[in-house]
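Readers of this paper often ask what the protein records in our data store actually look like. An entry from our holdings is shown next, in its original layout:
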Amino acid sequence: VSQSFETFMGIVIFVNLVLMIFETNSDARCYPEFALKLQDCKHHSSHHSWLMVCTIILQVIYTTECMMRAYAERSNYVW
C-alpha cells in the first residue's frame, strides 16, 4: 500500500470525524425542547441534505477500499 493512499485514507477518516462532530452538535442543539419531536427542530442533522450526500460518498470510499484490500491481499485478508 502506497504512502499517498494511506495519507488519502487518513484525510477521509479525519473528514468523517469532523462530519460526525458537526452532526452530533446539530442534533444536540435540539435538546431538550425538541426531544420528542426532533424532525421539528431546524438544527436537526436530517435537515442538512449535504450531510447525507457526504455520508454516502464516505460509505462508497470505505466500501471501495475494503474491496480493493480484499482483492489485493486475497488469502491474507481477514474474512
Remarks:
- Residues 3-28 form the longest helix (26 residues).
- The chain is about 65% helix and 0% strand.
- The radius of gyration is 17 Å.
- The mean pLDDT is 89.
